[in-house]
Amino acid sequence: MIAMPARGMTIVRAAPWHARRRLMTHSALTLEPVTPDDGEALLVMAHAFHAEDGHRLSDAGVDAVRAVCRGDPMAAGFFLRFGTVRVGYAVLTFGFSIEHGGRDGFIDDLYVLPQARGQGLGTAAMALLEAVAAVHGVQALHLEVEGGNARAEALYRRRGYRATARKLMSKRLAR
């Protein structure tokens, strides 16, 4: 089944995420769902992303990346593919919010390789992730940005994301 969520985007639906390849395209960028065989390739990019952000990927993070590749139902992982080349990755997670009227989502990771930046791929990836979220009934989409990452923050603001008056607080319950 093919749906056209927005001009220039095509989504080929398949579920669950890991059962079949689900290709989403925007111009020359494609979201390629990760599979159980993609764990090591995704980990290479996740380690690079976390190092660039100034914190190493923890052992729990490594386990989470592998769970995304195995098809955890609360997350969808994608390689960003430009033509035949993987130029990054993204992870979209799902939750529920009374305030936002039901299902919400979180763009947990969005990483474009340094050599691929400045070509509009982050903007295209955001449009595709938003379309995927909408198809899955997400009412609100959240993300966080490292302090000092003005380039990423500018991209998110251009896409309509706004800082809220609330602070995100976390408590690790496992490990």
TrEMBL record:
Domain N-acetyltransferase: 29-175
Signal peptide as annotated in the record: none
Source organism, top-level taxon: Bacteria
An example Gene Ontology molecular-function term: acyltransferase activity, transferring groups other than amino-acyl groups
Keyword Acyltransferase tagged: yes
InterPro entries for the chain: Acyl_CoA_acyltransferase, Bact_Acetyltransf, GNAT_dom
Pfam families xrefs: Acetyltransf_1
Keyword terms, alphabetized: Acyltransferase, Transferase
PANTHER family on file: AMINOALKYLPHOSPHONATE N-ACETYLTRANSFERASE-RELATED, AMINOALKYLPHOSPHONATE N-ACETYLTRANSFERASE-RELATED-RELATED
Protein name (Swiss-Prot/TrEMBL): GNAT family N-acetyltransferase
